[in-house]
Every structure is written in C-alpha cells, then in structure tokens.
Amino acid sequence: MAAQQSQGIQTLLEAEKEAAKIVQQARQYRVQKLKDARAEASKEIEEYKKSKEQEFKAFEASHAGTTINTQAALDTETEAKLQEIDVVFNQKKDAVVNTLLQRATLVQPELHRNLKKINA
Description:
The protein is mostly helical.
C-alpha cells in the first residue's frame, strides 16, 4: 500500500511538473504574441505616417504656386492702397493742420460750469 501511495504521489508530482511546463509555454506564447502585435502595430503606424506625409507633400506642392500668386496679388494690392493713402494724406494735410491751429489758438476764457459765483 505504501508503494501504491508512493506511486500515486509520484504520478501527481509528474502531472504537476507537466502542468507547470504547459503554463510556462502558455506564458511564453502570450509574451511572443504581444511582441509580434506590438511590432505589427508599429509597422502599420509607420506606413500610415509615411502615407499621410506623402499626401501632405502632394497637397503642399499643388498649392505652392497658389500661395506665391496670392502673395504677389496681396503685395500689389497693399502697394496700391498705400499709394492711395499717401495721395489722400497729401491732399488733406494742409486743411487738417489749419483746423488744428485754429482750434489751438481759439481760446475763449470761461468759468468752469462747476464753479459757483461767489456774491461779494
């Protein structure tokens, strides 16, 4: 009977070792699958990033001429407006200076409205 128990214990120990091996293999398999998934995800991310970068470069190239043309048109328009402002300034400069001088030299002394007359 002791031999049978010893043999039963031995069988249980072997089964436990086998189960530990299976668990270890499952862990290794899971770790490997995670590494593979990460590698695949980073590869997909890089491909997506490259495709979006190419799209952006294509968009930028197609609109580069438009930007230059728009900038030239804006520069021309700005110059025209500046010239117009200079013309208006030169036309009205003398009138504005005269108006300012008249207002500055036209002094009419008056008592302040908050000052009360003192009856003496």
